[in-house]
DNA sequence: CTCCCGATAT
DNA sequence: ATATCAGGAG
């Protein structure tokens, strides 16, 4: 995508949604970390449904250890991949208490050491909980970046690197949320709403009228 | 690359 | 009936 079009792309998204917010519910850096870890291959709505009760009981990794793996499973059985997620969340809680004083580290290399936390989840926590200008490339950003021609890449890592190069500094802070929301409601995987897309004029997607 | 894996949209 | 959903680990 041309530099001028990229500028327009984000100006349009910013105009429509000046302060974009994610749709995963959380109360602090730890619950954000848990919510994002649970959200792999699942919808926000499904995760929020489970965490609504969970986060009334659990606010810290210490709370999570008290609840226990079976107790956690009871809360998240409606979420896909719940077995491995429960195991990872418990192991991460142990590590947070033992090695980090129960605090979520503000460092990607440290975050990625936690079981069930990969680069994408770490980047979300750094961006949303700590205000870093990191761009977490999830399924939506990967699809939108490639489809529109904003930042094509074969892997999420490649797309992330390209996004950091092409997105003007003024848009980096909110780029993740703008793109994820655009991907969820307009530039959808199955049936993109190109006819009503606000950025269709600067989009490189071939069949713009497909629906 | 495969496995994990329930809920929802199409 | 099947594709997809705020991915990560082996």
TrEMBL record:
Q: Which residues bind [4Fe-4S] cluster?
A: 187, 194, 197, 203
Q: Where is the HhH-GPD domain?
A: 38-185
InterPro entries membership:
DNA_glycosylase, Endonuclease-III-like_CS2, Endonuclease3_FeS-loop_motif, HhH-GPD_domain, HhH_base_excis_C, HhH_motif, Nth
Keyword 4Fe-4S listed? The answer is yes
- Any one Gene Ontology molecular-function term assigned to this protein's record: DNA N-glycosylase activity
Q: Membrane spanning segments where?
A: none
Q: Which GO terms describe its biological process?
A: base-excision repair, AP site formation
Q: Which family does it belong to?
A: Belongs to the Nth/MutY family.
Please identify the protein, giving its name as recorded: Endonuclease III
- Underlying gene: nth
